[in-house]
């Protein structure tokens, strides 16, 4: 049995919900959510050794939105895999919410990922056999949350991303932009410390991609969600607070908002500013959590239907 994850960020520093429920988000609300020091990743040995990352230093604080850009082979995917705990660094350290991932077992990394990291993918990764609401409720159901509570929270998140009317629809009945909004809601349903997005608009046309970026920017502005996004689109990167350029495994530059963008996006001093997104149904963003552990995953599993159907508290399981 794996030992419990150390939780130095469990202090009553952030008040969410309507009843004063307090959830810790860091030692203080302005503390670093992500701290990366000297991060190096090498593959192979000897003559075949390739360094994908070479001494990356990076800090993200709560409510900061950073975009990562760079040519193919620059180390973007390797960086995301390491930050998500899906791979181990050759050298350097990664701390999320004050927790150092270096000394964790695989199970402990998985637990941290399930509780504190939201993942967004280019290809959405929704289960076709589940409705939009069930896809969003899945992480909570797998983590042991009562099914009715999981569905209620999923409905609120879908309302927050403008899909209240699409809750019973399956992925093939949704547009690409709608599917990505379902994926956003699924990644956020556990209220993660850090949201990692891998080309979230890569499979969308320019109109739908712009709507998704406006929604992501809204998350940062209104709810102080910390986010790191990999993208090849300079216009979408302009929505971020900071743009990190990777080349040959090193950070080339980390300017704030200095990237080519449409003139209507630029505010005083040429800095990119967010544009509004229309939300169909305004709902309370953060609700009082249910009395269950947030062991939910932010990605899919083959047994999703059974997990949701037989979750504790469901009518079917009863």
Strand order across the largest sheet: 6-7-8-3-9-10
State the share of residues found in helices, binned by percent: 25-40%
Structural class: alpha/beta
Query: What is the CA–CA distance across the termini?
Result: 29 Å
CATH fold call? Rossmann fold
Description:
The protein is an alpha/beta fold. It has one domain: 3-Layer(aba) Sandwich (Rossmann fold), CATH 3.40.50.300. The chain has helices spanning 76-83, 106-116, 132-142, 147-160, 176-188, 206-223, 234-237, 304-309, and strands at residues 32-43, 50-61, 65-69, 91-96, 99-100, 117-120, 194-198, 226-230, 242-247, 250-253. Strand 9 (242-247) and strand 10 form a beta hairpin. Helix 3 crosses helix 4 (147-160), helix 3 packs parallel to helix 5 (176-188) and helix 5 (176-188) runs parallel beside helix 6. It starts with 31 loop residues before the first strand and ends in a 9-residue tail after the last helix.
Characteristic key phrases:
Rossmann fold, 10 strands, 19% strand, 318 residues, four-stranded antiparallel sheet, six-stranded mixed sheet, disordered N terminus, alpha/beta
What topology does this entry show?
Layout: E1 32-43, E2 50-61, E3 65-69, H1 76-83, E4 91-96, E5 99-100, H2 106-116, E6 117-120, H3 132-142, H4 147-160, H5 176-188, E7 194-198, H6 206-223, E8 226-230, H7 234-237, E9 242-247, E10 250-253, H8 304-309
Helix pairs in contact: 3-4, 3-5, 4-5, 5-6
In short:
The chain is of the alpha/beta class and 318 residues long. Helix content is 27%, strand content 19%. It has one domain (63-85, 106-309): Rossmann fold.
């Amino acid at each position: 049995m794996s030992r419990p994850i150390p939780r130095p960020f469990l202090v009553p520093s952030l008040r969410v919900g309507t009843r004063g429920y307090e959830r810790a988000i860091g030692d203080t609300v302005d503390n670093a959510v992500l701290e990366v020091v000297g991060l190096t990743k090498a593959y192979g040995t000897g003559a075949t050794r390739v360094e994908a990352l070479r001494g990356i230093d990076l800090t993200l604080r709560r409510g900061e939105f950073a975009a990562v850009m760079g040519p193919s082979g620059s180390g973007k995917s390797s960086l995301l895999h390491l930050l998500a705990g899906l791979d181990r660094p050759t050298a350097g350290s990664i701390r999320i919410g004050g927790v150092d991932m270096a000394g964790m077992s695989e199970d402990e990394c998985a637990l941290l990922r399930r509780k504190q990291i939201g993942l967004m993918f280019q290809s959405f990764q929704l289960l076709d056999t589940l409705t939009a609401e069930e896809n969003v409720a899945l992480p909570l159901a797998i983590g042991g949350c009562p099914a009715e509570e999981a569905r209620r929270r999923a409905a609120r998140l879908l309302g927050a991303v403008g899909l209240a009317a699409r809750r019973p629809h399956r992925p093939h009945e949704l547009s690409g932009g709608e599917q990505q909004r379902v994926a956003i809601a699924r990644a956020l349903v556990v209220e993660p410390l850090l949201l990692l997005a891998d080309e979230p608009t890569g499979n969308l046309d320019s109109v739908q991609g712009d709507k998704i970026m406006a929604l992501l920017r809204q998350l940062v502005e209104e709810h102080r969600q910390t986010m790191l996004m990999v993208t090849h689109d300079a216009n979408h990167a302009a929505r971020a607070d900071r743009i990190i350029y990777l080349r040959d495994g090193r950070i080339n530059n980390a300017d704030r908002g200095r990237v080519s963008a449409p003139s209507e996006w630029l505010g005083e001093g040429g800095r990119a500013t967010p544009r509004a997104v229309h939300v169909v149904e305004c709902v309370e963003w953060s609700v009082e959590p249910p009395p269950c552990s947030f062991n939910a995953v932010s990605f899919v599993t083959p047994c999703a239907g059974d997990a949701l159907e037989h979750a504790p508290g469901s009518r079917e399981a009863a």
